[in-house]
């Protein structure tokens, strides 16, 4: 599949990634991990749910955990649209395409539209959310990883080309991509609506499953501080991938797994992509610098493990091209 032309005649205006809805077996444990460990703010904690947000966010939540006794699963990926008029146009657009879009009630959110996307990911869209003053200039409250805002999600996906086409039609732009060496077969696509490199990433693998969600922090030192804080709280065992720098997106990263196994990334060092002539950057699949610029690839579990979407069947990937893992790399070192 070759590079698609960006769609400048968008049917409605999706502005950015908004929030993620997941399940948790133990909301107190989840709260300890995200509030005491990573430094997120709790905006609501009831028997049934826990809502959190980051320092710069004025909306009620960017992370929602719903209590469930089952294994940890992902329930929704939430995006913002610009206005309720956009949501109403989207309702017609998606239903004409057979997506069975419906308006639902979501606490603390305005009009909310829910459907499954082109590759089966449960998604919802809203234009408004309850607003309160953020903690941006209450510096004495900044703790843990000093997380600024929810930036992107990454989805393990059986049909990366199909996801790219579906989101490109909605106005998402390709900023970077990985292709099977020497071919046009898309292995991973980094897609964005806001001004930086990504709101959603689709990477080849059994899916759809939620690989991770990522919060931005402005300082690399905050990523190191988060690791120190997690260690001092006896949460060091939750580190899923040690700090490093992605070639793709230039992100300085660390990954943790929360008490239910959901993977969360903290990262810094994005760059802007705004201009229409900013061409997508290509990476060959076997170039290990794409995932770790310093040369050490990610461990196998980082590539293979992910959170299921509740009730969504997992399909084998259409592209047969496993990535180079740390285990492969060390075997030849
Ligand atoms: Fe990421």
Walk me through what this model shows:
About 15% of the residues lie in helices and about 30% in strands. By secondary structure, the chain is of the alpha+beta class. The chain has two domains: about 15-130, 2,3-Dihydroxybiphenyl 1,2-Dioxygenase, domain 1 (Roll), CATH 3.10.180.10; about 145-330, 2,3-Dihydroxybiphenyl 1,2-Dioxygenase, domain 1. Strands 9, 10, 11, 12, 13, 14, 15, 16, 17 and 18 form a ten-stranded mixed β-sheet that branches. Strands 2-3-4-1-5-8-7-6 form an eight-stranded mixed β-sheet, covered by helices on one side. β11 (about 185-190) and β12 (about 200-205) form a beta hairpin. Fe (ii) ion binds next to β9 and β13. Fe (ii) ion (FE2) binds near residues 214 and 265.
| Assigned CATH superfamily of the largest domain | 2,3-Dihydroxybiphenyl 1,2-Dioxygenase, domain 1
The first-to-last residue Cα distance is: 34 Å
Bound small molecules, by name, code or SMILES, are: fe (ii) ion
Total helices: the number is: 6
| Strand/helix succession | EHEEEEHEEEEHEEEEHEEEEHEH
Question: From the structure provided, what is the oligomeric state, counting identical versus distinct chains?
Answer: single chain
Structurally, the number of domains stands at 2
Mean pLDDT, rounded to whole units? 96
Strand content: 25-35%
CATH class category name of the largest domain: Alpha Beta
Tell me the helix content: 10-25%
Largest sheet: 10 strands, mixed
**CATH architecture heading of the largest domain:** Roll
Overall geometry comes to globular
Low-confidence stretches: none
Q: Which structural class matches the secondary elements?
A: alpha+beta
Q: Which fold name fills CATH's third level, the topology of the largest domain? A: 2,3-Dihydroxybiphenyl 1,2-Dioxygenase, domain 1
| Rg, nearest Å | 19 Å
């Amino acid at each position: 599949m070759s590079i698609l032309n960006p769609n400048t005649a968008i049917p409605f205006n999706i502005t950015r990634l908004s929030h993620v809805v997941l399940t948790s077996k133990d909301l107190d444990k989840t709260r300890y991990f995200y509030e005491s460990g990573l430094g997120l703010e709790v905006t609501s904690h009831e028997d049934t749910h826990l809502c959190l947000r980051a320092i710069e966010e004025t909306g009620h939540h960017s992370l929602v955990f719903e209590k469930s006794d089952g294994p940890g699963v992902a329930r929704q990926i939430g995006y913002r649209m610009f206005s309720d008029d956009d949501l109403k146009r989207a309702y017609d657009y998606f239903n004409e395409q057979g997506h069975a879009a419906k308006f639902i009630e979501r606490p603390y959110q305005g009009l909310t539209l829910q459907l499954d996307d082109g590759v089966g990911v449960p998604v919802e869209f809203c234009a408004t959310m309850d607003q309160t003053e953020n903690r941006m200039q209450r510096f004495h409250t900044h703790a843990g990883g000093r997380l600024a805002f929810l930036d992107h999600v990454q989805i393990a996906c059986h049909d990366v080309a199909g996801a790219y086409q579906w989101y490109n039609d909605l106005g998402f732009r390709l900023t970077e991509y990985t292709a099977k060496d020497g071919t046009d077969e898309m292995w991973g696509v980094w897609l964005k609506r806001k001004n930086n490199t990504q709101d959603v990433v689709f990477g080849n693998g059994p899916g759809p499953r939620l690989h991770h969600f990522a919060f931005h922090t402005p300082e690399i030192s905050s990523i190191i501080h988060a690791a120190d804080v997690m260690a001092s709280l006896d949460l060091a065992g939750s580190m899923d991938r040690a700090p490093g720098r992605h070639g793709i997106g230039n992100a300085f990263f660390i990954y943790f797994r929360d008490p239910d196994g959901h993977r969360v990334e903290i990262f810094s060092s994005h760059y802007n992509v705004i201009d229409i002539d900013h061409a997508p950057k290509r990476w060959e699949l076997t170039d290990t610098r794409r995932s770790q610029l310093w040369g050490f690839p990610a461990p196998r579990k980082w590539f293979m493990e992910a959170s299921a979407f509740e009730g969504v069947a997992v399909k084998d990937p259409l592209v047969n091209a496993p990535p180079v893992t740390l285990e492969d790399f060390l075997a030849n070192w």
